[in-house]
Write a structure and sequence with these properties.
Elements (H helix, E strand, L loop, with lengths): L2 H19 L1 H8 L5 E3 L10 E5 L2 E4 L22 H11 L4 E5 L5 H9 L5 E6 L16 H10 L16 E5 L14 E6 L5 H14 E9 L10 H10 L6 E3 L5 E4 L2
Parallel strand pairs: 1-9, 4-5, 4-7, 5-6, 7-8
Antiparallel strand pairs: 2-3, 8-10, 9-10
The structure holds S-adenosylmethionine.
Length: 261
């Protein structure tokens, strides 16, 4: 073999080696956020801070919530962080009609019930653990997100089951792809999209949410994390509509925010 060919082979091998070493950075670059970030104080006036002294600010009364944390030993799957949960809990204080795609353990559902007014109604839809085989992987759906749907569809009782907060909550076991949303057209003040993370499900849940949202209502999506494999379809879908819908990412969270002004 001539020196020239060996040299060419070594360049090609080095090229692939560089691709392999930098695969995470490349993935982040390809999936990079197209979404503008905002401070939580731009999401709602409840998050603005109150001056205590020259070097100390406190949350306002509106952002003081009833809360709980889930310990590591409790091994619950598919949850929001406590900071994200605080944002959702605060927004539920101002929401009479709330809709959630994806109940899972019911951590967020419980918090929304604990923090909303007595007459608030919360609907949460989720998959019945016995029927997850009905969920189909469609064309471009990300494999790891598809596997997660099965991994997270394991509960038929929830953290709020048997508590006084349960009376405000209606859980519907249904595949969101088959869910008839039109009876809730323009009814919802707050919608939390945290169901299946495959492209087909995120698209379905988002399109239905835009129709279910009241004027001035808010949609939050969970898991907008560029570079995270199981969240790549969430990022891809939100990026794909960012030219027609003004969606923001809330700083230091994986939450995206849309308001129907
Ligand atoms: C990430 S977990 C939700 C976590 C929950 N929102 C929380 O904050 O604690 C995802 C949930 O979405 C549900 N899910 C996934 N695909 C769905 C679909 N096509 N229709 C309805 N629910 C779905 C799963 O059954 C699971 O309960």
């Amino acid at each position: 073999m001539s020196i020239k060919i060996l040299f060419l082979i070594s360049i090609i091998l080095n090229f692939f080696l560089l691709l392999f070493i930098n695969k995470k950075k490349i993935k982040i670059f390809l999936n990079k956020s197209k979404i503008e970030e905002i401070e939580v104080s731009n999401v709602h006036a409840a998050f603005e801070l109150k001056n205590i002294s020259s070097n100390l600010k406190s949350p306002k009364e509106d952002a003081i919530i009833k809360s709980f944390s889930i310990s590591q030993e409790n091994n619950i799957v598919g949850m929001t962080s406590d900071y994200e949960a605080w944002i959702i809990s605060t927004l539920s204080k101002f929401s009479k009609n709330i809709f959630e795609f994806g109940t899972c353990s019911g951590k967020t559902t419980y918090l929304m019930s604990l923090n909303s007014s007595e007459d608030t109604k919360i609907i949460s839809i989720t998959l019945n653990p016995n029927e997850i085989n009905n969920v189909k992987k469609i064309n471009q759906d990300n494999n790891s997100s598809y596997k997660n749907i099965k991994h997270e569809s394991i509960y038929d009782k929830f953290l709020f089951s048997g508590t006084p907060q349960e009376k405000k909550i209606k859980v519907i076991f249904i595949n969101s792809m088959d869910f008839d949303h039109l009876k809730f057209k323009e009814k919802m003040d707050l919608i939390f999209i945290d169901g299946g993370h495959t492209y087909s499900v995120v698209k379905n849940d988002s399109e239905k949410s835009f129709e279910m949202l009241k004027s001035n209502g808010i949609i939050l999506w969970h898991d907008y994390v560029p570079g995270k494999t199981s969240a790549s379809d969430v990022v891809k879908y939100i990026n794909s509509i960012s030219d027609i819908k003004k969606i923001y990412k809330i700083k230091n969270t994986s939450l995206c925010f849309y308001k129907n002004y």
